[in-house]
Amino acid sequence: MRQFFHAFSLCTILLFSSSSHAEQATTYPLTVMDATQKMVSLNNPPLHVSSKSMFSDQVLIELLPAHQITSLSRLSNDPTYSLIANKLPTTIPLLDLNIERTIANQPDLLIAANWSDQQKVNILRQAGINVYVFNTVYTLADIEKTFSC
Q1: DSSP state of 65
Q2: CA torsion sign, 63 to 67 to 71 to 77?
Q3: What pLDDT is attached to residue 15?
Q4: What is the mean pLDDT of each successive set of 10 residues along the chain, which is 149 residues long?
Q5: Which DSSP letter does residue 94 get?
Q6: Are 125 and 38 in contact (CB under 8 A)?
Q7: Residue closest to 49 by CA, chosen among 27, 64, 34
Q8: How far apart are CA 31 and CA 76, in angstroms?
Q9: Count of alpha carbons within 13 Å of 95, Cβ hemisphere only?
């Protein structure tokens, strides 16, 4: 499984990891363009990250300590669909893309897929939440193409 996420992990570790090496390698403020052509700016490394897709759930569980993940998608604990169901700490809430609950969750960064409800994404952005939208990937080649550094 780690092989599948290797390309994504290499490119995102600088953005999402709190390790001292990653912080030294990344200069903040940091601005990146997401899949919706929106610029996402972070003044500091994100310490509270929320995921709204199974893919980003799986990547974040591998990259971040549990205390930095403010929520994961609802299906992440369902072993029928999720590869990380047996790895999830009970301390991480499972929240879908609900505007009120997401604002109350107060993430520094929310990660959503391009199939996420864009109206909700826009409302969350207007509420001051940094939302990074990525294009859905289906194969390792997709990951390498989409997240090549």
Answers
A1: -
A2: positive
A3: 44
A4: 37 44 67 90 91 89 91 91 88 91 93 93 95 82 65
A5: B
A6: yes
A7: 64
A8: 29
A9: 23
